[in-house]
Amino acid sequence: MPDLPSAHPETGDADAARLTDLGYTQELDRSLGVLGNIAMGFAVVSPVVALYAVSMVGTMIAGPAWVWALPIVLLGQCLVVNVYSELASQWPLAGGPYQWGRRLLGPSFGWMSGWVWQFAVMFGNTTVAYLAAPWVFALVGATPTPGAMVAVAAGILLACMLVNAYGIRILSWFVSLGIAAEAIASVLVGFALLLFFREHGFALFTETLGAEELSGGSTAAAFLAVLAVAGWGFIGFDACVSTAEETKDAGRQVPRAMWWALLSVGLVVILNAMAVALAHPSPQAVVAGEDLDPVTTAVTTAFGSWSDKPFVAVVLVGFLACAMASQGGAARGVYSLARDGVFPFSRQVRRVNRRQAPIGGLVASTLVSCTGLLLGLNATAIGSLIAFGTAATFLPFFLVTLAALIARLRGSWTPSGHIRQGRKGTFLNVLAVLWTAFEVANVCWPRAVLAPPGAPWYQIWAGLLGTGAVITAGLVYLMVRKPQNTLRAARAEEHESQEDGEGRVDALAAERL
């Protein structure tokens, strides 16, 4: 029998009742509508951040033809969202990979999935804040030092924590304002470049301009590297899941929000990537490494030097909205682990303030992210952190889709939320596992082409080394602290609560008869 929400004894709130049946009480402020939830996902995926993260590197590795990697990665990520939608529909809980994994394959697997995902997001916040810092200096016309970069990035993280601490309503307002400016500017600039400022024909997208020489002359190797880089542009939709316990009718709205966030950002990124390439005065200069900021070059060449500062402001707004939403997701993931007593210092970390914000998770995740910023004092070290963050982000996608597939094939899980796809869901789940397994291996694969010239060996291997370090730390924690034992007890209580809820539903039905 599928999990059904029982009537809430005091408020009649179906969302709170569903949460109660899953073993939790409503502690966070459930005030987001579907648009607010979409905004969280849109901000984290962020077309501006995504484009800046991949455009220059993609062009250097594979020339203008790199843009063909974008629709391929978008399609692959649609497979992931398809699986996530079934899971979020049935279990609309903060800390998705952790909550779903422990229900699909047991406490140990779920805890490890949550552990890896959590550190990927927290260090991802470090990366976003660090990459946002140069735009602050560009806005005021100053030249940053490594120490100043770290200080400004830390200030960004602390400012985002302050906004998050005021609760989901204030966070949603700031994020929505930011993405409105970002989305409008992105779409208008993209179409303007494409329609009025093109310097090249569409045949440009069939050319590599000799970029494959960095990959030993192999176009195939260059394209594989670009697929790894392009993956950064389509992550973050799971922020919609992080705020599930603050979204009304979450079982229906969170899956919709994930689809809207991924597809809308994906189309804008593809539009702008093509527009920038076609409007750039010299793609060869980008391939040669002479232009390290092709997006700004294309915009200022087309619109004139007056557009420089406004464009910098729009980019900075995009980074800030991304940092706020991503930090909010990280805090809610930590909160989800801590309230089950399976995260270090759980008693302190699980605290919720009077504005119903997970203040303990905010402080904990911000401390970890700020600690990561210390690597920014060395440019090579921060590069290693960025490489690790990309690899660690795709690993939870793989673990979640794998857990869902194994549970389906065992017959221990049949989707029972609002989204149930039957055999089609199983087939698409197989494709999602294959895609994420490929992308994890592809991103972790050590490539000198993705590291700065003369980078030490450990930066080239950073994706694999960083992921291995997080997994090793998680396994040690599993063996020493044994959080899985706590989760088994919680699972037993949850089953009992669900049986009580089903009994209440059956009793109400009998009375009506």
Q: What does it look like?
A:
This protein starts with 13 loop residues before the first helix and ends with a helix. The protein contains 21 helices and no strands. It is mostly helical and 513 residues long. Helix 2 (34-45) runs parallel beside helix 11 (250-279) and helix 8 (168-196) runs antiparallel to helix 14 (308-338).
Identify the notable features of this structure and list them briefly.
disordered N terminus, 513 residues, mainly alpha
Helix and strand topology:
Blueprint: H1 14-21, H2 34-45, H3 47-62, H4 69-90, H5 96-104, H6 107-140, H7 146-165, H8 168-196, H9 219-230, H10 239-242, H11 250-279, H12 283-287, H13 294-303, H14 308-338, H15 346-349, H16 359-373, H17 379-410, H18 422-444, H19 457-460, H20 462-481, H21 483-512
Helix pairs in contact: 2-8, 2-11, 2-14, 3-9, 3-11, 4-9, 4-11, 4-17, 4-18, 5-6, 5-17, 6-7, 6-14, 6-16, 6-17, 6-20, 7-14, 7-16, 8-11, 8-14, 14-16, 17-18, 17-20
Concise synopsis of the structure shown:
This protein is 72% helix and 0% strand.
Q: What's the multimeric state?
A: single chain
Range of strand content = under 5%
Mean pLDDT: 87
Low-pLDDT parts are 1-12, 501-513
Helix segment tally: 21
Structural class: mainly alpha
Q: Can you count the beta strands? A: 0
Largest sheet: none
- Estimated radius of gyration: 23 Å
Shape: globular
